[in-house]
UniProtKB/TrEMBL annotation:
Domain Mycothiol-dependent maleylpyruvate isomerase metal-binding, chain residue ranges per copy: 11-65
InterPro entries membership: DinB/YfiT-like (IPR034660), Maleyloyr_isom (IPR017517), MDMPI_metal-binding (IPR024344)
Gene3D superfamilies: dinb family like domain
Name this protein carries in UniProt: Maleylpyruvate isomerase family mycothiol-dependent enzyme
Swiss-Prot/TrEMBL keywords: Isomerase, Pyruvate
Amino acid sequence: MRESEYWTLIHAERARLVGLLDGLAADQWQAQTLCSDWSVEQVVAHLSAAANTGKWAWIRSIVAAGFNPDKHNARLLSRYRGPNSEETLVIFRDSTTVTVAPTKDYPAFLGEVIVHGQDIAEPRGLSLVPDRAALLEVARYFAQKDFAVNSRTLVNGLSLEAEDADFKSGSGPLITGNLLDLVMTMAGRPAFAVSLRGEGAEELRHRMS
């Protein structure tokens, strides 16, 4: 897939998430997500930071943070968090079509938008359905490479097969499920591993516990 095609998918997934965020009540912005201890507003600010941080800005930030990823993320998040949730959303909305990334790992940055969108939607019981082509690109990338999450390591020695898409990866005990559940599980979200099936499913859930 060409770089321009990745950006088209990234922009579309950001816009899809903006549509969901537009419907949230004020109190929902401070509710917890599936992403560690971050609230909805913090996750959105993190995505704005990711959308606006290029290579050299990323390097300066991680060096200033003493190469501590948590401190690095917190510094960038605070920079792109508005004084209230409405302003935080404005910042993210304005970042929807930005084409900035610190590396050429475009499937990873596409995955970041998809995964964090589900981090927000799933606890609220809201539907946020990613583009199928985008989801396939992320699934293939996550199965082949550790990046922001140790996705490849997590499924090492296991075979994955989507029941609703043309996706197969790995070798070993088989795990089957919906493509979105497989992607979110590879991203380290146990809530999505519950519905996975196959002889390897329990082993995968054990690795995540």
